Amino acid sequence: MAATTNGNGNLVDEFEEAFQSCLTVLTKEEALPTMEKDEIRVEVDHTILRFIDLARQMEAFFLQKRFLLSALKPELVVKEDTYELRLELVRKEELIKRHYEKIAVWQNLLADLQGWAKSPAQGPAPSGLPNGNAGPQPPAPPTGAPPQPNLPSNIQQQLQQQQLQQQQIQQQQMQQMQQQQMQQQIQQQQMQQQGPPGISVASGSGGPGPMVSPQQAMFMQQSAGPRGPPGFPTQGPGGVLQGPLAFLEKTTSNIGMPEGRR
């Protein structure tokens, strides 16, 4: 492949001519209307193959010259490598400097944030207001909240309003839970004072106490738990059912009967 190169060094000129011929086939306007597509394709393929062949010849020529240079004068190769390494070191140092500059900027930002967090709760006056006539100051952020960056006054007010709304919602939820707990405790105390379902609770003077509805009786029986073995209804003397079962039997036996017999 190197045999095609002459001593005058015309390989580069031939490579340039081949490249120009590849462009000329596609850019000339006179011969395109008269030529057929197959002829244009053949000419384009021929010019491209010649261009690729010359590129390979030139690559082989430079590789041979470099091999001879490394064999005859290795110090030149070492100098070239050293020069490239120095350039790489310079690029790395510039990159490190830029990183140090960014680190300094971030340190200043962190210092500003810490100073803003340690400042009084009211903070400076909003932008657009004089120092003597400060507008209404927003409330201080809750304790334990992370420090906020230096934001515009309108954004800070929006964030503080959102925090206040969240706190109000949490307080309302806590109050509702406390009210529900109080109601449950009151209901439990009332059920404990009323006694067994369906039976009047005797007062201190011996008179009958308040009657309990069947629904309250069933709820009290479930909350109190079974007093005997599970699955066996309690019976009184003579095999008569007592408690909610007796009431249930009575109501089922009265279904379909006229009002006079109930």
UniProtKB/TrEMBL annotation:
Residues 136-150 have a biased composition (Pro residues). It is found in: Nucleus. Residues 215-224 have a biased composition (Polar residues). Residues 119-162, 187-262 are annotated as: Disordered. The keyword Hydrolase does not apply. Residues 187-203 have a biased composition (Low complexity). Keywords: Activator, Coiled coil, Nucleus, Transcription, Transcription regulation. The keyword Aminoacyl-tRNA synthetase does not apply. One of its GO terms (cellular component) is mediator complex. InterPro entries: Mediator_Med28. Belongs to the Mediator complex subunit 28 family. PANTHER family: MEDIATOR COMPLEX SUBUNIT 28, MEDIATOR OF RNA POLYMERASE II TRANSCRIPTION SUBUNIT 28. This is Mediator of RNA polymerase II transcription subunit 28. It comes from Zootermopsis nevadensis (Dampwood termite).
